[in-house]
Every structure is written in C-alpha cells, then in structure tokens.
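Practice problem: predict the structure.
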Amino acid sequence: MKRKLFVLFVFLMGISLSVFGHNGFNPERWQAEMEQYIVSKAGLTPFEASRFFPVYREWKEKERVYFDRLRFYRHINSNDPHACTEAIQQRDEIDLNIKKLQQLYHKKFLKMLPATKVYRIIRAEDEFHRQSFRKFIFQGGDR
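Answer:
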C-alpha cells in the first residue's frame, strides 16, 4: 500500500512540476492517453469503457481532494513536536481514507465488469503512471 501511494505521490509531484515548470502539460490530453492505454491494456469494449470511465473519473475527483489535503502537511514546522504529531496523525488518516475510497470504487467496478478486466485496469493504470513519470524525467518534463 505504501509503495503504491509513494509511486502515486512521486508521479503527482512530477505532474505538478510539469504544470508549473513547463507550459507543455495538457491534462485533457494526458487523461485521454491514460484512458486509451487502459482500454487497450484491459481489453475494454466501447460499451464497457462508456460505463467504466464516468465512475473512474468520479473516483479520481474524490481522491484528488485527499491528495490536496496531504499537500498541506508539507508546510509544517518540523521543529514543533505538536505540529509534527498532528501532521503524522492526519497523514495516516488521509492514507486510510484514500485506501477505503479505492476499495469502495474497486467494488463498484467489480459490479460492472469482470474481475479479470478490473485487475487489468488496475495494472494498466499503474503501468501508465510509471511510464509517464519516466517520460517526464527522461524527456525533461514536456508532457
């Protein structure tokens, strides 16, 4: 769990650097590429994709709220034990909430698609994020 959160966090940091460091990042293009990658890797039919992606986007919007809250805790006074304790507890709570949200949406996906396709979707998303992060690092962040 922590590894996936770390990979996602590093990826989101890369996206942030791309957005603020370069004007070449296009979130709509990135999302379309990711969705196309997921469709091809998971073998989704057009009908399955039309049912899946609205629910997937809803999940990601809710998840983004938690990641925004995590960003707040990067700016605490690391010399203040009380602030550090609070940040640790809040980060742990946010991590648990992210995982609960993920579990909830995985259950929703399993109701609309076969488990084999849901698993391929999860793997495809992870692969796409890793590949995007590598491209960002090795191509100077022009994504």
